[in-house]
Amino acid sequence: MLDITPQDLQTVFATKYGAPPLAVGWGPRIRSKFGYFTPDEHYEAVVSRLVGPGCTWLDVGCGRNVFVNNRALAKNLASRCRLLVGVDPDDTIDENDVVHERVKQPIETFRTERTFDLVTLRMVAEHVTDPEGTVATLARLTKPGSRVVIYTINRWSPVPIVTWLTPFQLHHLPKRLLWGTEPKDTFPVAYRINTRRALRRVFGAGGFRESEFGYLDDCRTLARFRATLIAELSLWRCLRALGLRYPEQCLLGVYQRT
User: What's the pTM?
Assistant: First the structure.
């Protein structure tokens, strides 16, 4: 289970939109009416709880944003912690003005004498091709008691399955149509550790234990359009009433160094 309260999610929502639900755009207003919080908001709530004064924080694969849709919270947490280092080999890290230090290289080659209290990987795990090597690097960069937060896609959800079966050259067009993304934000996927079992196995072997975990219903596939967002959320509500999970999911796990 994730250690998140409804109040934590409401606080993230308020920080993101800065207004009562009736005063925000139609998307947040509809989600609020259904009582639905996005996987991003769950992730942001977990990270917000773990970033404290004096915390040293390493954000892996940060790109241009620590939080894609919540710049206000990212800036707040960056000012709260003692150090926030972003590591990413992609040129988009040059656009990130929230992290205190930028390191433009893969996490596996990052060398420092520091250890970090918190390491976050937001939508990075699906791109990892050497899970054991990556976790060994995270163990080197942390100390007993440090936490690693993994927020990623569930491999067995419909969209990742389609993505896996589709040539990479065709990935950007549907992403642009559905979510308005740019080509530079599309990267090859591997899905080596995109199940709870795989995450437990590789982190357990690397000296970590799972301290929190949650499956997050992801009703954002068609969220760009009002009618389809309402349809997705209506289906989500019906499935919940039947005790069933929504088919599209994200994974959110916290792994503590032993």
Answer: 0.90
